[in-house]
Amino acid sequence: MTRARVNSALVRRINSARLFHMIRQNPGISQQKLSQISGIDPATISIIINNLESGGIVRRDTDAPTGRAGRPTTALSLDPRAGYLAGISVEPDAIRIVISTIDGTACADLAVPGSTAPEAAIAAARSGVTAALRSLRATRATLLAAGVAMPALVSTGGRIVFAPNIGWRDLDVAENLAQKLKVPVRVENDVKAAALAEHLFGASRDIADFVYVMGRSGIGGGLYLMGELYRGPHGLAGEIGHMKIVPGGRACGCGGQGCFEAYVSEKAILSDLAARGHGARDVASVRKACEAGDPVARAVLAEAGRHLGLALANLINIISPRRIVLGGSLAQLAPFLLPAAMETLEANALAAIYRDVEIVVSEMSGSAAAMGGIALALQQFLDDPPVRLDRARPTPSP
Questions:
Q1: First-to-last C-alpha distance (Å) of the chain
Q2: What is the pLDDT of residues 126-137, one digit of tens each?
Q3: According to the UniProt entry, where is the signal peptide (predicted)?
């Protein structure tokens, strides 16, 4: 019988990433505490921390002497001078760019005009990243990695399968942008990316099973299950916006009928309001009308809320998540969607499952997709292990 060989390089990479995130979430932690909470032996931790330190990723600060016997302890933290990450959120009319330090702290945020022409959009993203770095008095040489959140079906390999809102098909955006930025680039569906950001930087960092439901021009879903983002065998899982909630109902952009997003997306809500003669042009004006007690706006959102509640009940019955997080327009309109949604949800979800599920509103809201790009960039950076950085990186300006 042949004993399976252990891939020691993979184990080191996984342990390096684990320790990186523990330090990110607990700045000032000691190596002893890292060993206690990670279960990794002290000798292995010393090797990894030494490598991260030599790579300029982690820094040590020695505690002030206490007068007690023994060696002084050292506090570990990520070094913000290590470099920057770029998060890019692509929409038809605008491209939003966020620059962060390696711990995910945003330090620059700007938007540039978008384009439905791939080459023009990629060029705009590159120029926007350069401008955002310039605002920090940093060069592109300080950029470690970039992540792109796209309103698109994205394959496991990061290739755009189809982006209906901008008309892109079968494009390798990651490779094209990587050539222009000269750093690794990771591309993902915008809602999956937002779910990853919710776990890394948001209020769900300690939740192993949650569903992120995001309203924009459509409705998207991110399934964070058993401690990781679930993509399915082809990378396309989570298209909950095309769950059928009204058999034979409204036509949807996907070509089907009765889809969830045909009733609850921004586009659907604004179309319903327009059909009733209401003048709301965007989500902000819809919310403002509801806050002012507008009966038409409130009636339309109550109807959308009932459809939302049915869709959430289906998700709960099938997946049994610990939490459902509402983002995007669903978060902005939550006060006027949730009363009707909760009534429908309680009537249709299995009580034995539903009683353990939280329904929460994302604290990230409008920045979720761009921060999803940061989360992708951080993943890309860690997958190219920082313990093997093969070149010295210029020090960014503080």
A1: 57
A2: 999 999 999 999
A3: none
The span from the CA of 374 to the CA of 22, in Å, is 18
List, for residues 170-197, the tens digit of each pLDDT value. 999 999 999 999 999 999 999 999 999 9
CA 165, CA 218: separation in Å to the nearest integer? 9
Indicate the DSSP class of residue 244.
Answer: B
pTM, rounded to two decimals: 0.86
The number of domains in the chain is: 3
Helices (H) and strands (E) in the chain, counts: 14, 15
Q: Angle at CA 52, nearest 5°, toward 48 and 55?
A: 140
CATH number at residue 15: 1.10.10.10
Q: Classify residue 320 as left (phi > 0), alpha (psi -120 to 50) or beta.
A: left
| 40, 34 Cβ separation under 8 angstroms | yes
The CATH number linked to 88 is: 3.30.420.40
Q: How far is CA 288 from the centre of its chain?
A: 27
Give burial (CB, 10 Å; 0-12/13-18/19+) of 375: buried
Domain span at residue 104? 82-194+369-388
Cβ neighbours of 253 (radius 10 Å) = 16
The CA distance from 31 to 29, in Å, is: 7
Average pLDDT over residues 327-347: 96
Give me the pLDDT at residue 79, please: 92
Judge contact between 380 and 119, C-beta under 8 A: no
H/E element, 327: strand 323-328
Residue 374: which of 109, 100, 83 has the closest Cα? 100
Same domain, 98 and 171: yes
Residues 211 and 324 grouped into a single domain:
yes
Residues in the chain: 398
